[in-house]
Design goal:
The protein has one domain (4-247): 3-Layer(aba) Sandwich (Rossmann fold). The chain has seven helices and seven strands; from the N terminus they run E-H-E-H-E-H-E-H-E-H-E-H-H-E. The protein has helices at residues 21-32, 44-58, 72-86, 110-137, 159-179, 203-213, 226-233; strands at residues 12-16, 36-41, 62-66, 91-94, 141-148, 183-190, 244-247. The chain has a seven-stranded parallel sheet, with helices on both faces.
Length: 252
């Protein structure tokens, strides 16, 4: 039997970028502990497949919604679907993100910059502003932003992404102050995880760097995000808001 402190029975969780990677893992963990889910990502078929699997495994309701969080019209449509279907959102996870490659800093196009900031910062602002306001007007809730170690250790190959995630850290504290005392807003500042995105890495070169740049000497496994996600989503973190938790294996 799971610890009742982490029980999410009767709760409704909305996870952006929820059809794969860390978002998919977090969605499954919430469902396993009784939460109904809204799975949102850009691809409808991927959302629907994830929702079917979650319902089949855990017997909870799971709504699939195609949504590109870079546009506020899409964000508002996602919110409308969630509240029409379930009447509320108790847990919001702003997990959708992107960090495209570019050949050099002077060749970062305006379109690439705008897209990265829109997905990683603009969308989370809109979803948090609207859903957080509804939570605060109701019975409260928990908002979890998925940030990145790049916000603290920005590198030249990911500066637009790092800037957006640093902004997301700032939003975490600002919204915590705006929506307290009934809404908690926290962030998971994630390091490198071996999700589907890591398939594009040179894993041998990464492993060599990790031995000297990460205290634990390795990347994270996807399931290792679950503890932090459940902590922030549940009553276990009832006195925690405005926190940015480093989940990076001790990157330095």
């Amino acid at each position: 039997m799971s610890d009742p402190m982490f029980d999410l029975t009767g709760k409704v969780a909305l996870v952006t970028g929820g059809s794969r990677g860390l978002g998919r893992v977090m969605a499954g963990a919430f469902a396993e502990r009784g939460a109904d889910l809204i799975i949102a990502s850009r691809k409808a078929d991927a959302c629907e497949a994830a929702a079917r699997e979650i319902t089949g495994r855990f017997g909870v309701a799971a709504l699939a919604v195609a949504c590109n969080v870079s546009g506020w019209d899409d964000c508002d449509a996602l919110i409308d679907r969630a509240y029409t279907e379930f009447g509320r959102v108790d847990v919001l996870v702003n997990n959708a993100g992107m960090s495209p490659l570019y050949p050099s800093l002077d060749q970062v196009s305006e379109a690439l910059w705008d897209k990265v900031v829109a997905v990683n910062l603009k969308g989370p602002f809109r979803l948090t502003a609207v859903i957080g306001s509804r939570m605060a007007a109701g019975t409260g809730g928990s908002i979890i932003n998925v940030s990145s170690v790049a916000a603290k250790h920005p590198g030249p190959a990911e500066l637009p992404y790092a800037a957006a995630k640093a902004g997301l850290n700032a939003l975490t504290l600002g919204f915590a102050r705006a929506f307290g005392p009934t809404v908690r807003v926290n962030a998971i500042q994630a390091g490198p995880f071996l999700t589907d995105i890591s398939k594009a890495w040179d894993l041998e070169a990464f492993a060599e760097r990790a031995r000297t740049s990460i205290a634990l000497g390795r990347a994270g496994q996807p399931h290792e995000v679950i503890g932090a996600a459940l902590y922030f989503a549940s009553a276990a973190s009832s006195f925690c808001t405005g926190a940015v938790l480093q989940l990076d294996g001790g990157a330095f």
